[in-house]
């Protein structure tokens, strides 16, 4: 059986020979923000109002009742 070898005149070029590198440039620098880090001119958003405690408990109870009814109905099938 004969060994198959490529002679130098029939060798194929490297796969990397077809690619050329692109010129790289760093991204543009944004303008400097001159405000100090603790600038008092910026206002923080107002915190969301906290609902009354009884409303949270009532909402949780209604959610638990609805989920219990759905689970009970699914298990009854």
Structure commentary:
The chain has 77 residues and is mainly α. The protein is 31% helix and 0% strand. The protein is built from one helix and no strands. It is flat. The termini are far apart.
Descriptive tags:
77 residues
Q: What class, by secondary structure content?
A: mainly alpha
The outline comes out as: flat
Low-confidence stretches: none
Q: Approximately how much beta-strand content do the residues carry? A: under 5%
- Determine Rg (CA atoms, Å): 36 Å
Which sequence of SSEs, written as H and E, runs from N to C? H
Helix content: 25-40%
Main sheet specs: none
Secondary structure elements and their pairing?
Blueprint: H1 53-76
Concise synopsis of the structure shown:
Helices cover 31% and strands 0% of the residues. The chain contains one helix and no strands. The model has no long low-confidence stretch (mean pLDDT 78).
């Amino acid at each position: 059986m004969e060994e198959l070898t490529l002679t130098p005149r029939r060798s194929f070029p490297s796969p990397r020979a077809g690619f050329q590198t692109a010129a790289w440039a760093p991204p543009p620098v944004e303008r400097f923000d001159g405000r100090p880090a603790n600038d008092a001119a910026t206002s923080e958003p107002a915190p969301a109002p906290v609902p009354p405690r009884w409303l949270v408990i009532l909402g949780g109870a209604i959610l638990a009742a609805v989920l219990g009814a759905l689970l009970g109905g699914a298990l009854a099938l």
